[in-house]
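Quick one, probably user error.
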């Protein structure tokens, strides 16, 4: 039986959207499917979200609101690293929804809180405000890029299956491109945590040089 419209809340709508997104993928989400999940007609959802795009915005904001920032230590490099790793651990819990969070423009309180925290760490470390903004954006680009790759949203030329690995090596070697052939074995595998650390280290080392 469909729930009366007065009983439905925005939180219930977004929770249902999250369940469906993680089960079937974000691209499969529709207003009709979410309505069925909460037991109402699709039109009832429009009392809580204006349309599908608004629902996706709300979903991204609701998931991001669950992210907990680590406590600061006063060491700016350690603090930035802690925020980045905490966010990675958080994002991998939502493999279907995380790419949505990472690619949508948002001014949600949760996102602004993360930005404010990182900016504060950089400014207290001695970066000028304008440089802190550049630094935050560089860190964001690094973290977002490597996480999207981990979530399968960008190419890696690698994978975990040993059989597929052999095929990937063969295809790269068969391309007759000399530099790719040289690194074919290394290119065919990927350690996402090591890649994350490598990318983050590059960004942090670049920022450290600015302060020297």
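Nope, works fine. Designed sequence:
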């Amino acid at each position: 039986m469909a729930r009366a419209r007065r009983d439905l809340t925005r939180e219930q709508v977004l929770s249902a959207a999250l369940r469906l997104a993680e089960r079937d993928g974000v691209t499969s989400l529709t207003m009709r499917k979410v309505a069925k999940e909460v037991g109402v007609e699709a039109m009832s959802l429009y009392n809580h979200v204006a349309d599908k795009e608004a629902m996706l915005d709300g979903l991204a904001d609701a998931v991001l609101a669950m992210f907990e920032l680590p406590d600061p230590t006063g060491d700016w490099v350690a603090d930035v690293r802690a925020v980045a790793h905490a966010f990675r651990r958080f994002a991998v819990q939502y493999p279907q929804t995380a790419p949505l969070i990472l690619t949508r423009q948002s001014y949600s309180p949760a996102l602004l809180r993360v930005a404010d925290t990182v900016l504060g760490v950089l400014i207290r470390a001695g970066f000028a405000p304008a440089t802190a903004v550049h630094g935050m954006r560089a860190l964001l680009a690094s973290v977002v890029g490597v996480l999207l790759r981990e979530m399968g949203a960008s190419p890696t030329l690698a994978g975990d299956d040993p059989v597929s690995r052999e095929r990937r090596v063969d295809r790269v070697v068969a391309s007759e491109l000399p530099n790719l052939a040289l690194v074919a074995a290394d290119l065919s595998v990927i350690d996402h945590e090591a890649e994350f650390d490598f990318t983050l280290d590059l960004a942090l080392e670049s920022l450290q040089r600015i302060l020297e």
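The mean pLDDT is 91.
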